[in-house]
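Entry for the shared binder. Reason: the reviewer on the internal report wants the predicted structure included alongside the sequence.
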Amino acid sequence: MMKILIPVDGSANAQRAVDHMIKNIAALKELPQLLLLNVQWNVATGNVKLFINQETINDYYREQGMAALQSARAALDAAALPYQYHISIGTPAEAIVQYAKEQGVDQIVMGRQGQGGLQALLLGSVVNKVLHLASCPVLLVK
């Protein structure tokens, strides 16, 4: 069975990748296994750990991750498509590629950044890095 990874960060950009999959899934010979991944930036470094216990930090990541996954999950639920979801902690591009490797993913589907500005710059660098690091095909959705 084909495994498709869709990294989501809660943005409209990421949602386009999810919507693209929903629209085009019927064209595939068999239903792929859809994996949603949200990556939380690792904020708990150095002194932060002295003041906040790990459990609180983990709760924060889980809360932020579930919020970011919400619209993607709602769209897949509405389309009655099964999926798995996971929250990773680290730097987005590296975490996406590592998870893809661990799961033996056949394809990564990502939204291309839209507007300009700093966010697009950061997002663009994530997309570029994934393209550079991934050992499987990456589909960019406009």
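Summary line for the report: The chain has five helices and five strands.
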